[in-house]
Amino acid sequence: MRVNLKGIHKVKVTLSSGEPKTYYYAYRGGPQIKAEPGTPDFVQQYQEAHSNLRQPRAGTFMSVIARYKAAPEFTKIAASTRRDYLRYIKLIEDEFADLPIAALADRRIRGDFKGWRDKFANTPRKADLAWTVLARILSFAKDRGIITSNPCERGGRLYVADRRDKIWTEQDIAAVLSVASEEIRLALILALWSGQRQGDLLRLPWSAYESPHIRLRQSKGGRRVVMPAGTPLRALLDTTQRRGPLILTNTLGRPWTSDGFRTSWAKACERAGIGDLTFHDLRGTAVVRLAIAGASVPQIAAVTGHSLKDVEAILDAHYLGRDIQLAEAAVLKLEARTKL
């Protein structure tokens, strides 16, 4: 007998091998169904997932969460961000679904929330993200007049990322270029000369490139950037076969998925013997390279799309604290201006 299962959410991806694959979820944001479609196990996992759905009761924190998930503050964010948020919303629901809304006015509730966050202290990044999502929900509740104050404001962070030494050297870059596929090499050079984020580069269309300029709108903050493509990048783009509307594609000429690109990038870095360096570190590396070349803070910001404040922060705290090349460039400038 055929069973009609409503609300099944399908996600089609292309694996790093190029093989297409479909993942099934009981509902959008729900648990993955790992059984084969059409089997009794598939139906059972679907029914179990739906039986575990919480029905929000009026006057509880669960009802606030339900309103947040239906509001533009949640539905309008990027799909990948929504998926990440849903993981942490599930943790929040498991712990605080039945919490009365009135309890959010009790000054002691912040301590309860902190205690919950501290359960994840062994994985500080997870703890901070869980706290961030909880604070966003409470901020939504405050904006909608459901509560009068947000007990999770200014919660601090457990995870501190120190990327001061995480700069791609010329040797690192050459190592990856020597072992990577043409598709990965193009992504590396594009990131190195543009200083843009991975997501924006994976979505960058050929129409954005009109030699000698690249025009794009950054997904984070919506900043519009118009940058000249450096000669090495321009030469590479001009000789690259256009296999579709996007500049960066996989070996099959198809658009990269985020997971597919990360997997292929990691494999190339592993073959090159690259350790604790990420694709995102290329964004900071681009800032450093421009600074070493003598570019001013406004000039760097015009290329990478950072704010002036962010460029200064990168150069001051995160990357250039002990950069020998910058020091050498400074001394050479001093030598050129003095006889002493």
TrEMBL record:
Protein name, entry field: Integrase
PROSITE patterns per record: TYR_RECOMBINASE
Pfam family name, one: Phage_integrase
Keywords: DNA integration, DNA recombination, DNA-binding
Domain Tyr recombinase: 163-332
Record bears the keyword Transport: no
Family under the similarity heading: Belongs to the 'phage' integrase family.
PANTHER family for this protein: PHAGE INTEGRASE-RELATED, PROPHAGE INTEGRASE INTD-RELATED
Taxonomic path: Bacteria, Pseudomonadati, Pseudomonadota, Alphaproteobacteria, Hyphomicrobiales
